[in-house]
């Protein structure tokens, strides 16, 4: 084996401590998604771009692309917040 073959092993030891799912984690993720939807409501140029959602009354004037974009953004925010709170010992 070459000397550089196992050089990545210290990187594997730096993986953050992850949490198991709990209601607290779910609430944080839901709040982050609501925040992302609120941000998207004021910043997306064409929120009602087709295709439309099956229940427009539930999603307002958001089309499928806007819903997918805002909830994806919410999950990115939520992942960071959950990991950050876990490292601080709050969750």
UniProtKB/TrEMBL annotation:
Mind telling me what this protein is named?
Photosystem I reaction center subunit PsaK
* InterPro entries assigned to the protein according to its UniProt record, in alphabetical order: PSI_centre_PsaK_sf, PSI_PsaG/PsaK, PSI_PsaK, PSI_PsaK_bact
The subcellular location is: Cellular thylakoid membrane; Membrane
- Entry's transmembrane regions: 25-44, 64-86
- List the GO biological process terms: photosynthesis
Q: Which gene encodes it?
A: psaK
Query: SUPFAM superfamilies from the xrefs?
Result: Photosystem I reaction center subunit X, PsaK
Q: Which UniProt keywords apply?
A: Membrane, Photosynthesis, Photosystem I, Thylakoid, Transmembrane, Transmembrane helix
Matches recorded under PROSITE patterns? PHOTOSYSTEM_I_PSAGK
Starting at the broadest rank, the lineage of the source organism is: Bacteria, Bacillati, Cyanobacteriota, Cyanophyceae, Oscillatoriophycideae
Q: Name one Pfam family in it.
A: PSI_PSAK
Q: Spell out the family assignment given in the record's similarity comment.
A: Belongs to the PsaG/PsaK family.
Give yes or no: UniProt keyword Transferase. Answer: no
Per the record, membrane topology reads: Multi-pass membrane protein
